UniProtKB/TrEMBL annotation:
InterPro entries: CDK (IPR050108), Kinase-like_dom_sf (IPR011009), Prot_kinase_dom (IPR000719), Ser/Thr_kinase_AS (IPR008271)
Keyword DNA repair: no
Pfam families (UniProt xref): Pkinase
An example molecular function term from Gene Ontology annotations: cyclin-dependent protein serine/threonine kinase activity
Lineage: Eukaryota, Metazoa, Ecdysozoa, Arthropoda, Hexapoda
Organism: Triatoma infestans (Assassin bug)
Domain spans labelled Protein kinase: 1-160
Domain of life, per lineage: Eukaryota
Keywords: ATP-binding, Kinase, Nucleotide-binding, Nucleus, Serine/threonine-protein kinase, Transferase
Protein's UniProt keywords contain NAD: no
Protein family per UniProt: Belongs to the protein kinase superfamily. CMGC Ser/Thr protein kinase family. CDC2/CDKX subfamily.
The protein, known as: Cyclin-dependent kinase 9
Gene3D superfamilies from the UniProt entry: Phosphorylase Kinase, domain 1, Transferase(Phosphotransferase) domain 1
A single Gene Ontology CC term: nucleus
Length: 160
């Protein structure tokens, strides 16, 4: 949770969910002296998975293009800030009532860096929801970078 909070505090972009505040409960005897943290975000009316599963919602070609454009803008921004999302899926794409897309759920996100020879550092391959997981992760690769998020974006585009 702390990594997610640090990442969300760093990322400020129209197409990334905005962390407004962090609240925590008081540690007491009743909760075994453990605090619970709550993250407060701007409200988004929809998630893309919910819209795609609704038979009454049909996206026009123009709307699909706009969603994909915003999705790629958000990914470009987070990758430019050396952050991998690592859980791209339709349920983690929020949409406001005015049609603004927000990348959400940075629980698996992490900073990335490249070694001197341009190779990305080794990370766990147990990331990305199975249906959106790229072939290299399915085959056990631990040297990965932004393309794993782009594969997920491509899966989302195909779903639409």
């Amino acid at each position: 949770a702390l990594r997610e909070i640090r990442i969300l505090q760093l990322l400020k972009h129209e197409n990334v969910v905005n962390l407004i505040e962090i609240c925590r409960t008081k540690a007491t005897h009743d909760n075994k002296y453990r605090s619970t943290f709550y993250l407060v975000f701007d409200f988004c009316e929809h998630d893309l998975a919910g819209l795609l599963s609704n038979i009454n919602v049909k996206f026009s070609l123009g709307e699909i293009k706009r969603v994909v454009q915003q999705l790629l803008n958000g990914l470009y921004y987070i990758h430019s800030n050396k952050i991998l999302h690592r859980d791209m899926k339709a349920a983690n794409v929020l949409i406001t009532k005015s049609g603004v897309l927000k990348l959400a759920d940075f629980g698996l996100a992490r900073a990335f860096s490249q070694t001197k020879n341009g190779q990305v550092n080794r990370y766990t391959n147990r990331v990305v929801t199975l249906w959106y997981r790229p072939p290299e992760l399915l085959l056990g690769d631990r040297n990965y970078g932004p393309p794993v998020d782009l594969w997920g974006a491509g899966c989302i585009m195909a779903e639409m």
